[in-house]
From TrEMBL:
<dbReference type="Pfam" id="PF21983">
    <property type="entry name" value="NikA-like"/>
</dbReference>
<protein>
    <recommendedName>
        <fullName>Conjugal transfer protein TraJ</fullName>
    </recommendedName>
</protein>
<dbReference type="InterPro" id="IPR053842">
    <property type="entry name" value="NikA-like"/>
</dbReference>
């Protein structure tokens, strides 16, 4: 919506509804936290931290796979963040 249209509709008393789905924003924040934790685990392993000495290749590959799946999940949620204009 253009700024002129927005100002015209507000001045005429029309209710302007938001286009952001706050539930999806909350879900996106949760997913972002998950990505941060997984990234932290990967960083510990890459820095040869003593706490990750027992991590084998399969564990690291599982973490990388989980990061990729979480990124895909984040992408799906991001497409739902802004509701289609037909719902306004």
């Amino acid at each position: 919506m253009s700024a002129a249209r927005y100002l015209r509709e507000v001045s005429q008393g029309y209710h302007i509804s938001g286009v952001v789905d706050y539930e999806q924003v909350r879900e996106l924040a949760r997913i972002n936290g998950d990505l941060g934790r997984l990234g932290g685990l990967l960083k510990l392993w890459l820095t040869d931290d003593v706490r990750t000495a027992q991590f084998g290749q399969s564990t690291i590959l599982a973490v990388l796979s989980k990061i990729e799946a979480t990124q895909e999940e984040m992408g799906k949620v991001m497409t739902k963040i802004v509701m289609p204009r037909s719902e306004l």
